[in-house]
Amino acid sequence: MYLLGKSFKFLNWLYPYVVIKNIAIYAYYLLHLGIMNLSEHLDKLKPFVAIAEAGTIHEAAKRLNITQPALSRMLQILEVACGSELFVRSRQGVRLTAAGEELLNYANLTLKELENLKAKLRAPANKMAGHIRIGTYESLAEYLWPDFLCHMQSENPDLEISLKTSTEVKLIDLLARGEIDILVDAEPRVTGDFISWSLYK
What we know:
The protein is mostly helical. Helices cover about 50% and strands about 10% of the residues. The chain contains eight helices and five strands. The strands form two sheets. A three-stranded parallel sheet has the order 4-3-5, sandwiched between helices. Strands 1-2 form a two-stranded antiparallel sheet. β3, α7 and β4 form a beta-alpha-beta unit. α3 packs across α4.
């Protein structure tokens, strides 16, 4: 489908009811005219992260309890605001593009800071208020988690703690992406930008 005209301003009214094949060209016109601005669509970061985690728009829509067409429209608008495709679509699902990887890192950090901000606003005088995400293996979690969680919650009632268990490779990847804050490991791993310290010997 081709749209011809002297002005492209009417596209903002049509979008997202019209599917434009080349999103980069469409993004150029919208951004050039000042119609699309990424800062105006930060509310779509959470749905974007849900799609990245689920691997399919259908599954992400179920998790978010919204319709698949509505989620697809959110993603299309976000891609236009970013000026780039964020996922490669296939019959098997979606996978992040290079631009999508960059946005995912940013989105995780932004959503994490928003959670921290909400906790700090509830208890502004408490420096330990916030949200911390801990990753470890299931075997270590079974051994350490119950006592650790009980102690931390009693000492820091304004600190929200969440646990993610997975494999070593996956956990290190989550740490690098900013999807977890701390990795509790059985072995010291000083690689990349990570800092390792011993809890006990």
